[in-house]
Every structure is written in structure tokens, then in C-alpha cells.
TrEMBL record:
This is CoA transferase. GO terms for molecular function: CoA-transferase activity. Pfam families: CoA_transf_3. SUPFAM superfamilies: CoA-transferase family III (CaiB/BaiF). Keywords: Transferase. The lineage of its organism: Bacteria, Pseudomonadati, Pseudomonadota, Gammaproteobacteria, Pseudomonadales. It comes from the Bacteria. It comes from Pseudomonas entomophila.
Length: 406
């Protein structure tokens, strides 16, 4: 029994930010009912290749993208553009604790599925709306996608090679990070609203925006600007406030060196065979190293090329200096620590036998995450949910199917 096993979530969202939040709640035990369009379902079901392969090595209908954000859920197909479909969703909302949706602002009002409509039938409902720009402001009605928000929200101005270097220019992060972070913040907001409901007995509306989350997560870089008025510039893999804190070449590749304080720098200088660096007034403190970055970094690069990545990692770890290799995903999933933490799991799947999944990073001692069910097939649980939650019999479900509602 998960920590949230007493809760039911109605997940009306698609793509990533909303489904990511729903999956976190599902991993924690909530009964998450994913409502999808009959025939096509979540947009990401078609976002492939790659697709999950069956035992014969043939592609199934399940895109890897969809599989990343929908485990532990039950899929129900309902066409809520039809009045009967709207009625079914309202009845499910009346028996739910949480609704997650990521339609355009006002998009669900036409179907009577907006917060005010559902609040009237379930005052304790927590209703989380996820949009690109939020429910207010001049951009509220615009569609918002992760890539666009990374650009508009400033992240791409900080990501990529520095000006003047080959390949310089803005670069997006390699995963849809803004969507993921919005899913995480949405989950935090939902849990806060649940805590308030426990005290006050009422639900509330949560207004989450990708842009708001993107700006909030600029963290120290945003403060670097707000305290100086100077927009930070792209530094590639370097850090704006710490030196050395970036990648360096080795005899057989590259490694990452993350020196967090002056003591670590002294230890690094000793391992590098350059103990005088730690006493050089240009490099003795982090403040001076940042000021003299252009002088120090070439010296370090000249030193690191004489040992392999493995040699640097081994020697620096013994000295207590944080560092590490730059792995691709194949190497990462074979890393001893990743294996020890069990970060890859397999769940039984009706089409493929098993489906691989990335494990939840949440480790709870009393209510651990359970991998109860693979990401569902489209409409896999329609009959079961309508029977168990709404009490519909087989004939009623058959009639709804015949009318194209399911």
C-alpha cells in the first residue's frame, strides 16, 4: 500500500508535464485514471520510433516516449466532446481527489470540465491546470512547448558553447527539462493542496505554467543577473561562479572536475603535479580563480591530457576531489552505482512480455514505490473503471461503445 493509495487522480493531461506528475502520484500509490481520446489517445503514443518491441523483435504500438511517463496508471477512453462523455468524466471527477489537465486556458469550460464546473459537484477536488504561460497575462492563451519555453525563458541563453568558439550559439537541454520540472513542481503543489484540504476540508485550483517554472529554476543564474544587471553568458560546460568546475581532456577522452572549495583545489593541484598552483595568488581562492579563469583553465588542460580518464578518476577520488567520467546512456546504465541503486526495472507488459522502465528516485522506508503495472494500452481499463468506479454494467458500457463515446 503506497503512501497515496487512498487517493484517486483523474489525469486528463497529455504529452509530458502533466503525465509526469500523474506518474509520480501513481508511483506513490494513487489510483491514477488516464482519460484518453478513443482511437488515438495521448499524443506521445505516436511519437516514435523507437517503439517497444515484442518477443519476436517486432515493433508494438507503444512508443518509448509514451512509456516514459505513464506507468502505474489505468487507461480509459472517453470522447468528452460528446455530452455522454462529458457526463462520464464529471462522474469520475465527483469520485476523485485530484484532476490534472493541460488544455489551453478555458479549453475545458466548453465541456463543463473546468475547475468551477467540477468544484460545484466536488468541493474537495484539487484541480491542477498546467499550461505554457499560466491562466493570466498577455500570453495566457498561447500554446507552450518545452523547447519554446527554454528559449523564451532564458535557459538557452545560458546553454551552449561560449561566443567565439566553434559551434557557439544557443542550445536546448538534451531532455524536455522544463516539462519534467513542471511535473515535479505540480506534484509538490498537489501535495501541498492535499495538506491544506486535510486541515480546511476544501480543495483548490492550482495554476502551473512552464514559463514560471523555467524562470524559477534559473536559480543562481537568475540571481547573478538580478544582483548585477548583467545577463550571464554561455560558458559551455564551465560554471559562472566556481573554477575549476567543467570538463577537461584526458589521454583517452574527457572527464569532469568539480572543485567546490579551496581545500579541494589544493588537493587537485598536488595530484596534477602542480602544487604551486594552490599558493599562486591568482589561483589560491575561488574568487581569484574565477577572476583568472582564462589563465588557469589552459594550464589545467595541459596537465590533464597526460593521464587517462580512469587514472584521473581513481587518483582524485582517493584524494577526495569530486570528479567523474562523461558516460553515454549505455555506460551509465552499466555503472556500478546505477546498478546497485536498481535504477532500471522491468514490468510485465501484455504485448512485449516485459517493458523496461527507469526507476523512481523516491526511496521511502515505510511506503516504498511499487511498480504495479506497465504503462497501459489505450483503453485497457475502460470497462473495469466504469464498472468499479461508476457502477456501470456490461450492457451500459456496450451501448456507450456503440455510440462512439468510448
Amino acid at each position: 500500500m503506497g503512501a497515496l493509495s487512498h487517493l484517486r487522480v483523474l489525469d486528463l493531461s497529455r504529452v509530458l508535464a502533466g503525465p509526469w506528475s500523474g506518474q509520480i502520484l501513481a508511483d506513490l500509490g494513487a489510483d491514477v485514471i488516464k482519460v484518453e481520446r478513443p482511437g488515438s489517445g495521448d499524443d506521445t503514443r505516436a511519437w516514435g520510433p523507437p517503439f517497444l518491441k515484442d518477443s519476436r523483435g517486432e515493433n508494438t504500438s507503444e512508443a518509448a516516449y509514451y512509456l516514459s511517463a505513464n506507468r502505474n496508471k489505468r487507461s480509459v477512453t472517453i470522447d468528452f466532446t460528446q455530452p455522454e462523455g462529458q457526463r462520464l468524466v464529471r462522474e469520475l471527477a465527483a469520485k476523485s481527489d485530484i484532476v490534472i489537465e493541460n488544455f489551453k486556458v478555458g479549453g475545458l469550460a466548453a465541456y463543463g470540465l473546468d475547475y468551477q464546473s467540477l468544484k460545484a459537484i466536488n468541493p474537495k477536488l484539487i484541480y491542477c491546470s498546467i499550461t505554457g504561460f499560466g491562466q493570466t497575462g498577455p500570453y495566457a492563451k498561447r500554446a507552450g512547448y518545452d523547447f519554446m519555453i527554454q528559449g523564451l525563458g532564458g535557459l538557452m541563453s545560458l546553454t551552449g558553447r561560449p561566443e567565439g568558439e566553434e559551434g557557439a550559439g544557443p542550445m536546448k537541454v538534451g531532455v524536455a527539462l522544463t516539462d519534467i520540472l513542471t511535473g515535479l513542481y505540480s506534484t509538490v503543489a498537489i501535495l501541498a493542496a492535499l495538506a491544506h484540504r486535510d486541515q480546511a476540508g476544501v480543495g483548490q485550483h492550482i495554476d502551473m505554467a512552464l514559463l514560471d517554472v523555467q524562470v524559477a529554476c534559473l536559480a543562481n543564474q537568475a540571481m547573478n543577473y538580478l544582483t548585477t544587471g548583467n545577463p550571464p553568458r554561455r560558458l559551455g560546460n564551465a560554471h559562472p561562479n566556481i573554477v575549476p568546475y567543467q570538463d577537461f581532456p584526458t589521454a583517452d577522452g574527457n572527464f569532469i572536475l568539480t572543485v567546490g572549495n579551496d581545500g579541494q583545489f589544493r588537493k587537485f593541484a598536488e595530484v596534477a603535479g602542480q602544487p604551486q598552483w594552490a599558493d599562486d595568488p591568482r589561483f589560491a581562492t575561488n574568487k581569484q580563480r574565477v577572476a583568472h579563469r582564462a589563465e588557469l583553465i589552459p594550464l589545467i588542460r595541459q596537465a590533464t591530457v597526460f593521464k587517462t580518464t580512469a587514472e584521473w578518476v581513481s587518483e582524485l577520488e582517493k584524494a577526495g576531489v569530486p570528479c567523474g567520467p562523461i558516460n553515454d546512456l549505455a555506460q551509465m546504465f552499466q555503472d556500478p552505482q546505477v546498478l546497485a541503486r536498481g535504477l532500471a526495472v522491468n514490468i510485465p507488459h501484455p504485448l512485449a512480455g516485459n517493458v523496461p522502465q527507469v526507476a523512481s528516485p523516491i526511496r521511502l522506508s515505510e511506503t516504498p514505490v511499487e511498480y504495479r503495472q506497465a504503462p497501459p494500452l489505450l483503453g485497457e481499463h475502460t470497462e473495469a473503471v466504469l464498472r468499479d468506479v461508476l457502477g456501470l454494467d456490461a450492457m451500459a458500457v456496450h451501448e456507450l461503445r456503440a455510440a462512439g463515446v468510448l
